[in-house]
Design a protein that fits this description.
Elements (H helix, E strand, L loop, with lengths): L8 H5 L3 E6 L5 E8 L2 E8 L8 H27 L1
Antiparallel strand pairs: 1-2, 2-3
Length: 81
């Protein structure tokens, strides 16, 4: 793919980040940073480190927001139980 992911083995191994390949609306690679219960987008590029479109960035942002809602609900259920 020829991009920034090559040096991320340790961060992934220790659970500090996750790397996903996005297929739609365009093919891209995204770094999801995890710090405690905080989750957000790190690096996010097309092949050869080209910028993603606004539409692609918006779609992944919505995906992260949906995850945050689910994660918050899970924490609430655990604290009640």
């Amino acid at each position: 793919m020829k991009h920034w992911v090559d040096g991320y083995t340790q961060k992934i191994h220790f659970g500090n980040c996750y790397i996903y390949h996005v297929l739609e609306p365009e093919s891209a690679t995204v770094e999801i940073l995890c710090r405690g219960s905080s989750v957000h987008i790190g690096q996010f590029y097309l092949e050869r480190n080209k910028k993603t479109s606004e539409k692609t960035h918006t779609e992944v942002t919505i995906w992260i927001e949906d995850y945050r809602k689910t994660f918050t609900i899970r924490l609430d259920i655990k604290s009640i139980g």
